[in-house]
Amino acid sequence: MSLYAIEATGLIKLYKDVTAVAGVDLTVPAGQIYALLGPNGAGKTTTINILTTLTPPSAGSARVAGFDVVRQASEVRKRIGVTFQDIVLDQDLTGRQVLNIHGQLYKLNKTERQQRIAQLVELVQLNDAIDRIVKTYSGGMKRRLELARGLLTDPTVLFLDEPTQGLDPQNRAGIWSYIRELNRQRGLTLLLTTHYMEEAEALAQTVGIIDHGKMVAEGTTSELVAAMGKDVIRVRGNGDAQHFVQAVGGLPFVERVQADEGEGLVSIYVDNGSRRLVEVVETVGNNGYRVEDISVARPSLGDVFLHHTGRALRD
Ligand SMILES: Nc1ncnc2c1ncn2[C@@H]1O[C@H](COP(=O)(O)OP(=O)(O)O)[C@@H](O)[C@H]1O
Ligand SMILES: [Mg+2]
Asked: Cα separation of 176 and 187, whole Å?
């Protein structure tokens, strides 16, 4: 296998009047966790569908586990696992039946199925529930069962489309720890999509930020965030922010100002947040902008997104 578990060049996917993916390049080294972060409709699921051979690209090409997703689709399928954004489990089967059927589909013999199911049930901690019907599972248990199913064929590359969507923080943290464990123990390459910044931050070595089908920024979380400046002073208020934005942008210690009109939020990137706070507050007062809330923080991936797209990354 090549150095890269996933290599995509110039991926484009057109539906009738929608460009779902508009030229995505993506490389993921073997053994890495990569997060594709973006808002709803950004093109994340479509990108996963192309990489998992479910839909062909309109243009561009991709290799997964060393094989071309169009010309060698069945070779790719042998080496990947997928969990989908929407839960697609048969609710009237038991967890064990779901896994068994999946194993049969992939031609695992009975002994292999029994062994792997036992291991995976242990990993995702479904021991007590595996012989109950899926209908009785909580959302978190269903996600864990899907994770086990995605792993049943012992993939080298695992695709997780919004693996914790709709889960509460506790269940989310649980899934995160299984994902980390898989990556650590088996050297599994993982590509996950998410619209939760914290998820990308918590899990991924590399984050690709996607919007309107295009990659707008890529790097490690710390690289992306460091490029924004050291601290950010966030001013939420009302009134016309234009004069304030101009005035504050002229202060010598201000590196960058970003206004999100819709949110009434002005983000001011400075060398030292707590030291510069007073001067920023004074500038607000002199420019007819009424402050409701002001805070100092380290820049986040949300700021990176805002910077590259001019919009906030909302759920
Ligand atoms: N089968 C399809 N037919 C037409 N449009 C689609 C189809 N699948 C996705 N789209 C559109 O492509 C865009 C990207 O969708 P998707 O990849 O699901 O985004 P995400 O997963 O980031 O929310 C959206 O505008 C969506 O409506
Ligand atoms: Mg999606």
From this structure: 16
* Mean per-residue pLDDT of the chain: 92
pTM summary value: 0.89
CA pair distance 80, 189, nearest whole angstrom: 10
Residues whose Cβ atom is located within 5 A of ion ligand 2:
44-45, 85
- Domain encompassing residue 239: 229-298
Token pair listed for 267: 């983000």
Ligand 1 atom closest to residue 210's alpha carbon, by position in its atom list = 22
Q: Both 175 and 37 in a single domain? A: yes
Ligand 1, pocket residues at CB < 6 Å: 15, 18, 20, 38, 40-46
Strand partners, 11: 24
Tens of pLDDT, residues 2-42: 689 999 999 999 999 999 999 999 999 999 999 999 999 99
| 101 and 142 together in one domain | yes
Number of domains comprising the chain: 2
